[in-house]
Design brief:
- The complex is a heterodimer of chains A (99) and B (629).
- Chain A is mainly α and 99 residues long.
- Chain A has helices at 4-23, 27-52, 56-86.
- In chain A, helix 1 (4-23) packs antiparallel against helix 2 (27-52).
- Helices cover 78% and strands 0% of the residues of chain A.
- With 629 residues, chain B is mainly alpha-helical.
- A two-stranded antiparallel sheet of chain B has the order 1-2.
- In chain B, helix 2 (31-54) runs antiparallel to helix 3 (86-109), helix 5 runs antiparallel to helix 10 and helix 15 (327-357) runs antiparallel to helix 16 (375-389).
- Chain B is globular, with a radius of gyration of 30 Å.
- Classes of the chains: A mainly alpha (99), B mainly alpha (629).
- The A-B interface holds A 18, 21-25, 30, 91-92, 94-99 and B 602-607, 610-611, 614.
Chain lengths: 99, 629
């Protein structure tokens, strides 16, 4: 199969994730969209590894997973804390820094 | 010759002034005595130096003292140095001698004033500055003293600055003096630019090499300086208002010493004026104009101090006229300056004594018949009066007649005009001084029941008596055997050749005496034979009205300088607001506007920031794509 197709899928997933981050208000959904973008990037890395016939991209994909895992831990903790204090998971409500 | 004593002349009163200013109220009890003692000790040093001077021969009487190197820039060297020569010593003795007498007088005169200590501190400061003025060995050193006496004059005119009019008078004097000071600073600059030096000795040595044009420019600028400081036309308007100061100040600063600084400057710069005949003629003309100007104002004033101030202006006009007559006139200008220092200071102290006895009343129309109540004041004032109008053998007769005589002997139309002006001035002087004396001391009393005229305490009349002695004797001493002319000869170098005399001295004296008698006669007819109205009559000729308004000098200054100046300032304020402030405010507004526009992008919503990041990333990728394409 043409490896370019994987890249199309990766681009599609990244676009969906990016649009989701911009348009959705629920913090959990936004968070999931970010994960989507990270995984789109992972897919692109793996595809490039396949195209180039070396392991560089795959190694990079592992790094990304580690970073994503850390990010999930910190990010979810923040979201839960915000929810506890404000009874809302909407990112628009958390705009205190502007004022 | 050098001497280490010169600096003490200045340092003693300066020290007194500093101590009184720094010690503040703690020195209230002894401050006046301390200041008087220091002024007297400065006089003592002056006398000692004078006696040393007398013991040397004519050529090497001058002594110098180099204090320190003041300015050293490339080839331009100015030392803070002092020089005491035959001319300076006359001033040193006048300043410290009359100054000490006036210190003594002020102890009594100012005894009721809460600020007496401050007054004495200023007086001492004045003495120090004035001594620096006459002792400096270069124009720049003179300039320091020149500004110092201007400051002292300002502080003392406005001594009672709780009265706004007095504060204004002080400001007026200061501003008028600034105009003159500008002339002096320009003269110094021209002198440095053309001659490369500002010391008296250096300028004297190099004056021969400079062009007549530049010497004339220096001379005219020096004349401007003299008109400012010495209240000469056209900068004379401040002197009348300067009478706002306490009377001892009027006597010391605005009669005997400071206002004569212009005469000193011109006589000291004799080598410049001798080489610049145009400037010299201008000096004589200014002197002649002012002596008439002051005399005319003097005729119309009812305020005793202002009448005396107008008379001072007129007498300094004589001195300036004398100084403008060239080598033959310098010594007589200085002689008149010294005799005037005695009799005018004496008369001012007399006026102060009258005011002291009359509850500070200055209007002569409310005096009258005071000779019975103040016999000593009357006697001393009367001697000063005889001296100023030039009755032989009193001091003014010798000095003033000499100036008139020299003026006539200039020859030609110049001699007749200047001599005629001086002669007319003598007649008017006799008229207005007789008027002052008659209105104050003779006639019937016109004061309120409340006033209790009485003679002043001894501390006041002793200085008056001493000055009266000077008014009587000084003229004879100075002319006896031509002593002052010979004494000053090394400094001002009189012309060796004898001028063809147009009029014999005796003829001039007789003419002057006749003029004086006419003046006295008219004054007696007008003010002694008839009763003097207590309120100044209003139905007088237009000339009297103009003279009462100081010959419209204030109106002229107001119309020509002050009003357009205010308009100019207002215009500048508008321009400042529109252009300068406008530019600054415009920049500020632009910054604020840009900021508030950009602030709209900061919504506080995470998604909008994410959007910006996304757009940025897309832009970055697009840029890389375009570059690598």
């Amino acid at each position: 199969m043409n490896p370019a197709n994987y890249l199309y899928v990766a681009a599609l997933l990244f676009t969906i994730g990016a649009i989701g981050v911009v348009v959705r208000r629920n913090a959990i959904v936004v968070f999931m969209c970010i994960e989507l973008m990270l995984n789109a990037a992972n897919l692109a890395f793996v595809t490039f590894a396949r195209i180039n016939g070396n392991l560089d991209g795959q190694v990079m994909a592992f790094f990304t997973m580690v970073v994503a895992a850390c990010e999930v831990v910190v990010g979810l903790a923040i979201i839960v804390t915000i929810y506890r204090s404000r009874r809302s998971a909407s990112v628009d409500d958390a705009s205190l820094l502007k004022r | 010759m050098t001497s280490n004593l010169l600096v003490y002349l200045i340092a003693l009163p300066l020290f007194g002034s500093a101590i009184l200013m720094l010690a503040g109220r703690r020195s209230d009890k002894w401050g006046h005595l301390f200041a008087t003692a220091l002024s007297a000790s400065s006089f003592g040093v002056g006398l000692y130096l004078f006696s040393q001077m007398l013991s040397r021969s004519g050529g090497n009487r001058a002594v110098t003292q180099n204090l320190f190197s003041w300015i050293s820039v490339g080839t331009f060297q100015v030392n803070a140095g002092l020089m005491l020569d035959q001319l300076s010593i006359c001033f040193v003795l006048l300043i410290t001698g009359v100054g000490t007498l006036i210190h003594i007088y002020s102890i009594a005169y100012m005894s009721h004033d809460l600020d007496r200590r401050r007054f004495f501190s200023y007086l001492n400061f004045f003495i120090a500055a004035m001594l620096l003025l006459v002792l400096g060995d270069s124009y720049l050193n003179l300039y320091v003293g020149w500004e110092g006496v201007g400051l002292a004059s300002y502080l003392l005119i406005g001594f009672w600055n709780q009265k706004p009019t007095y504060a204004t008078a002080a400001k007026k004097a200061f501003v008028a003096n600034r105009v003159g000071d500008l002339g002096l600073s320009l003269a110094i600059m021209i002198s440095f630019a053309t001659l490369g030096t500002v010391s008296f000795a250096g300028v004297k040595a190099h004056a021969g090499q400079a062009s007549t044009a530049s010497l004339t420019a220096i001379g005219i600028m020096l004349l401007v300086a003299a008109t400012g400081k010495s209240a000469q036309f056209p900068l004379q308007a401040w002197l009348g208002d300067a009478m706002a100061g306490p009377t001892p100040v009027s006597a010391l600063i605005h009669a005997a010493t400071m206002v004569t600084a212009g005469v000193y400057l011109i006589v000291r710069s004799n080598f410049i004026f001798d080489a610049a005949p145009t400037a010299q003629l201008l000096v004589a003309i200014i002197g002649a104009i002012t002596l008439l100007f002051g005399a005319v104002i003097g005729m119309a004033k009812d305020d005793i101090k202002k009448a005396l101030a107008a008379s001072t202006m007129s007498q300094i006009g004589y001195m300036i006229l004398g100084a403008g007559l060239g080598p033959v006139g310098y010594a007589f200008a200085i002689m008149h300056l010294l005799t005037h220092g005695f009799f005018k200071a004496g008369m001012f102290l007399g006026a102060g004594s009258v005011m002291h006895g009359m509850d500070d009343e200055v209007n002569m129309r409310r005096y009258g018949g005071l000779r019975k109540f103040m016999p000593i004041t009357f006697a001393t004032f009367g001697l000063g009066y005889l001296a100023i109008i030039g009755v032989p053998p009193f001091a003014g007769f010798y000095s003033k007649d000499k100036i008139i005589e020299v003026a006539f002997n200039m020859g030609g139309i110049k001699g007749v005009t200047l001599g005629g002006a001086a002669m007319l001035g003598a007649a008017i002087t006799a008229f207005y001084m007789t008027r002052v004396v008659v209105m104050t001391f003779a006639g019937n009393k016109r004061w309120d029941e409340k006033a209790h005229p009485h003679e002043s305490p001894a501390m006041m009349w002793i200085p008056m008596v001493l000055l009266a002695v000077g008014s009587v004797a000084s003229g004879f001493i100075f002319t006896h055997g031509n002593s002052l002319v010979n004494w000053l000869a090394p400094v001002v170098a009189p012309n060796p050749e004898h001028h063809s005399e147009m009029l014999k001295p005796a003829v001039v004296s007789i003419m002057a005496l006749v003029a004086v008698l006419i003046g006295i006669g008219i004054a007696i007819m007008k003010y002694l034979r008839k009763d003097v109205p207590v309120v100044a009559p209003e139905n007088v000729s237009i000339f009297t009205k103009i003279a009462r308004r100081d010959l419209l000098q204030d109106d002229f200054n107001e119309a020509v300088f002050m009003r357009p100046g205010q308009k100019l300032t207002q215009g500048l304020v508008v321009a400042d607001k529109a252009l300068i402030d406008g530019a600054v405010r415009g920049v500020a507004r632009m910054t604020v506007g840009t900021g508030s526009t950009l602030r709209n992008t900061q919504t506080g919503f995470v998604r909008s920031y994410a959007m910006w990041i996304l757009l940025g990333a897309i832009g970055l990728i697009a840029a890389i794509w375009v570059v690598t394409l």
